[in-house]
Amino acid sequence: AEVVNGGSLYWVIRGQVLCRQRILRLDEVAGADGITRCGLVLEPTLHRTQAAQRRPFQGWRYLMPQDAPPDLPASRASDDALPDDLNRALAEIGVR
């Protein structure tokens, strides 16, 4: 219930969280190997977030709401992305 009631999947791109997609539901999916898995059904809309540096990882990571990067204001959603090196430098010093 917590995941589908406002939860999002945050995309880490080149070591930074840059956007998110809302999780709409979790489906039970049977693979070709007969193993049942959890399928994530995501909202098709990507919501750009303020850049937040994250180390590479595999698997799930859960973010508490206070640790999740905020969405960019709607007026900035179409802004050009900052150069990667500048984005990383700002994230390293805590400027988002």
Distance between the first and last residues' Cα:
30 Å
Question: What proportion strand?
Answer: 35-45%
Q: Indicate the percent of residues in helices.
A: under 10%
Low-confidence stretches: none
With helices defined by DSSP (H or I, 4 residues minimum), what is the helix count? 1
| CA-based shape | elongated
Biggest sheet features: 4 strands, antiparallel
Pairing-aware structural class of the strands and helices? Answer: mainly beta
Q: What Rg is obtained from the alpha carbons, in whole angstroms? A: 15 Å
- Helix/strand order, N-terminal first: EEEEH
Give the rounded overall mean pLDDT: 85
Strand tally is 4
Written description of the protein model:
The protein has 96 residues and is mainly β. It is built from 1 helix and 4 strands; from the N terminus they run E-E-E-E-H. It has one helix at 84-92, and strands spanning 8-13, 16-30, 36-42, 47-53. Strands 1, 2, 3 and 4 form a 4-stranded antiparallel β-sheet that branches. Strand 1 and strand 2 (16-30) form a beta hairpin. The mean pLDDT is 85.
